Amino acid sequence: MSDTPRIAIVGAGPGGLVCARILHNHGVPVTVLERETGPTARPQGGMLDIQAPTGQVALRAAGLFDGFLALSRPEGQEVRMMDRDAVMVRHFVPDAGDLAAPEIDRGHLRTLLLDSLAPGTVRWGHAVETTTALPDGTVRLGFSSGRSEIFDLVVGADGAWSRVRPALTGAEPVYSGVTFVEIHFDNIDHRQPDLARLIGPGTFTAKAGRLSLVAQRNSNAHVRVYIAFRGPLDWNAGLDPEDTDALRDRLLKMYEGWDESLLALIRRNEGPFVNRPVFVLPVPHTWQRVPGITLLGDAAHLMPPAGVGANLAMLDGAELAQAVIDHPTIEQALDAYEAVMLARSVSEAERTGEMLTTLMPDTDSIEPLFPIIRANRAAETGDLA
What we know:
- Residues 7-340 form the FAD-binding domain.
- Its main location: cytoplasm.
- This protein has 385 residues and is of the alpha/beta class.
- Helix content is 34%, strand content 24%.
- The chain has helices spanning 14-25, 55-61, 65-71, 106-115, 188-191, 193-199, 244-254, 260-267, 298-301, 309-326, 330-359, 369-381, and strands at residues 7-10, 31-34, 47-49, 79-82, 88-92, 103-105, 122-124, 128-133, 139-143, 148-151, 153-156, 174-185, 203-208, 211-217, 223-230, 270-280, 293-295.
- A 7-stranded mixed beta sheet has the order 5-4-13-14-15-12-16, covered by helices on one side.
- It is globular and about 65 Å long.
- Residues 364-385 have low confidence and may be disordered.
């Protein structure tokens, strides 16, 4: 980049922070604008499996791979899968030294990335509300405070409901037909030892047709459970979202006939039931170039939760930063970045959409899971033959 552009990254998630870190390492100034008031303003969610050909490539480019390894849990790659009768149908245990996709807490990864940036790079409490392309090729961001600021490059890294995306495309996320209801267990090894043994050190899944239970071990004996099902967006219609007992009763009716050891994950939940319907962007999702504006991660390609979202976001961020570094103008950088990112996002969105259909069909068979599992493992290791 011949001149020093004014660059704003909207959103302090993994993709935006990787992009900022690599630009910072190459002496390119960047500002990250985040609507949250601080790094601890809200919980950062569960675990991420950081995959060798995507997320790990990005962290290496950012010079943070060793820091990631120090925080990661390779044992978290273990997968246990049962049917509704609690019969084990698959059990994957990673070999010693297997680093295909180690798990890391989202919060730990975000802290690693934030700590790698110069103080003041992230402006907390800066909620972007509008993004406007100006005739001279610059971009004006309008904030909820009423202020505005001009930049040469604006990167929308602000997730599913991006405030930058409308400047490029009218596409909006749509409901996929699948909902996740999240619950959690703290100190599970001591307070719920039978559930701890059932789940194991990694990811546990029980499945029958359109219904699934997914449990994931986090650090510090914390477990997140996702009650996942194909159904209407208003599955909880008529219920008070704060009425835990009523929500539990409705969910238990949906899972009637499942083994009691599995239903215990619903019966003994700690805290509220958190409704998380799965939204996706249309496929393909592309746009005509608007000077000085681009997207990465979920803002560009919101997909079903199949273990690729954060990985692709970080790879997007790394590739965008490198394109800015390698090219003399912003528009040349965006040409290079979007040519690769958009093609990849279309193929990945198609793949994850097929996975969601296969994993959540209107059938009680579990057999369709096995080719999907094999394909996922190949993607994690980079062995796509």
